Amino acid sequence: MFRRKNNQDRSNERATEYATCKDFQQIYTEDMVGLHQLAYLLTADQAKAGQCFIAGLDESIHGNPVFKQWARAWSKRAIIRNAIKMIAPVPPQSTPVTEKLTGNEQNENLDTMSAKVATWVPFERFVFVMAVLEGYSLRECSAFLGCPVQDVATAKSAALQKVTKQPEQSPAQTEAAPWRGFARVQVA
User: Rounded to whole angstroms, how far apart are CA atoms 28 and 11?
Assistant: First the structure.
């Protein structure tokens, strides 16, 4: 009898270690702007970004249990996974070409860094966001995107060259804060 009670106590302790629906709702409410920007940078479309945001929240709440300490990172991963499913970025077969957006996909303020990144080919955009902004390793990006590490490294290099060659920034500004146009979501 004493032993059974200890097992129940341990079971209750484990249950409180996992993130709850309320925890994820709080994360998505507090980090709404940053998480939506992450979805927009990946999809380059406001409507698709909204779909990724909602799908990420749903996946976070109804998916596998996650430790509370991992909940913020898990929320980002859920958005990234949903964006990959939606956009299906593949490495270009030749030299990447900048895409031109038309219609409602264009952002009103094309001077922002986010709007410029949104014009890149999907694969390069995904690699930049995942590897540079979110800090995933080349191997992690490769696993997420289902491609060789060399393709990820090439896309990352091309993206970094585009970012560091911004015409409206002086070289000193670029060196000091090349990611100035991005609001980074903090992981607790």
Answer: 28
The alpha carbon of 17 is separated from its chain's Cα centroid by a whole number of angstroms, namely: 25
> Is 141 exposed, middle or buried (CB count within 10 Å of its CB: 0-12, 13-18, 19+)?
buried
List, in sequence order, the alpha helices (H) in the chain.
2-17, 21-30, 32-43, 46-62, 71-87, 113-118, 122-127, 138-145, 149-164, 171-176
CA separation for the pair 45, 100 (Å, rounded):
13
pTM above 0.90, yes or no: no
Widest Cα–Cα separation across the chain: 74
Q: Using CA atoms, how far apart are residues 177 and 188, in angstroms rounded to an integer? A: 23
Mean pLDDT, contiguous 10-residue spans, the chain (188 residues): 52 70 93 94 94 93 91 94 94 58 42 83 96 95 95 95 68 48 46
Quote the CA–CA distance of 151 and 157 in Å, as a whole number.
10
Q: Using alpha carbons only, what angle is made at residue 114 by residues 110 and 111, rounded to the nearest 5 degrees?
A: 25
24-53: b or e for each residue (b if 16 or more CB lie within 10 Å)?
beebbeebeeebbbbbbbbbbbeebbebbb
